[in-house]
């Protein structure tokens, strides 16, 4: 948790971390419909009027929480190997999509995309933040000469993340043993040989 | 539209096709909340009691419509080349996800996964039906010697479909020119060289 993200430096209330974590806890427990500013105030011990001062709606609060909460925190791996870094990233993703409470958050986020344009725009910001943070994994791989400088990290992450989302959330099938390693190997091999 | 699918052979009311099409039209127009058996009856010109006789709930009707309706119909391509077949499949998918009214259906289906276990189970059936229909594309490619007999069509389709879902629905980014061809080339190259 960097100081830039806990709200004090970027402009946010004290206890921003507690507020964000409480917001995603409540989303996981009660779904978007059951999420209320009142509930977040109670859970985080922060006055409701303070919350409204910073976030005019629960949609705005959820948007901030998706990026700031500890439950979805992403520290880019740095194993020294692109393959292992991608396995770590995809492994984290499959955990988020299969293990509660994170999987409840993922499903609620998915529902949120379809719920309103405002929420869809927060989900868009969340995914933009993810790829921005994942970029360093590819920068290091280019520096090590593991992948071409014109490789397309967005396409590679879409393939990896997409396989997990489709298999787990849409098909609702269990992941076979070795899914993460095989998926990464397939995508990486493809990426290395396609211009 | 095969005779097996229009309801008369599999056990369904007359005008099953009109019923399924009307169900998805209404889903696209009004979302799941606004979809009613009454509305489907009006749109399709079929008596409401007939609908209830075949499908006890709107969830059950939607489940049948996802598989039977013309809007999501999938005729597996047969171009003589796996690469071109997969481009056709992914091209159809990106069209379904980006062009109305199909994209409204896709978003509503996505919402449905999160709405109730019953709907989630219909979505699961829909995706099981898709991969079963797509299998022939891979069978033909194996017969032509284009891909190894132990290639994993499920993983390949998850990668292709997943890239489209993540890029379009989650990231909400436009598809760059050449997305379909490049995605297929990457996945196919990866699949050919990974055991």
TrEMBL record, chains A, B:
All residue ranges annotated as the HTH tetR-type domain in the record: 13-73
Residues within the DNA-binding region(s): 36-55
Keywords: DNA-binding, Transcription, Transcription regulation
Keyword Transcription: yes
Transcription regulation among keywords: yes
Cross-referenced PROSITE patterns: HTH_TETR_2
Domain of life: Bacteria
Protein name: TetR/AcrR family transcriptional regulator
Organism, scientific name: Streptomyces mooreae
């Amino acid at each position: 948790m960097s100081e830039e993200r806990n709200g004090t430096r970027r402009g946010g209330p004290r206890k921003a971390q507690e507020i964000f974590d409480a917001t995603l806890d409540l989303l996981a427990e009660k779904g978007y419909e059951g999420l209320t500013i009142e509930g977040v105030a109670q859970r985080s011990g922060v006055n409701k009027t303070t919350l409204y001062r910073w976030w005019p709606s629960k949609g705005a609060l959820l948007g901030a929480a998706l990026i700031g909460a500890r439950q979805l925190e992403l520290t880019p791996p740095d194993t020294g190997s692109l393959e292992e870094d991608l396995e770590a990233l995809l492994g984290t993703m499959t955990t988020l999509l299969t293990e509660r409470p994170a999987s409840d958050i993922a499903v609620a986020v998915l529902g949120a995309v379809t719920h309103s344009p405002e929420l869809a725009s927060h989900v868009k910001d969340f995914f933009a933040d993810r790829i921005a943070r994942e970029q360093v994994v590819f920068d290091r791989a280019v520096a090590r000469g593991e992948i071409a400088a014109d490789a397309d990290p967005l396409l590679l992450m879409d393939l990896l993340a997409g396989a997990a989302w489709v298999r787990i959330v849409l098909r609702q099938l269990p992941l076979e043993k070795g899914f993460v390693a095989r998926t990464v190997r397939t995508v990486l091999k493809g990426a290395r040989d396609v211009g």
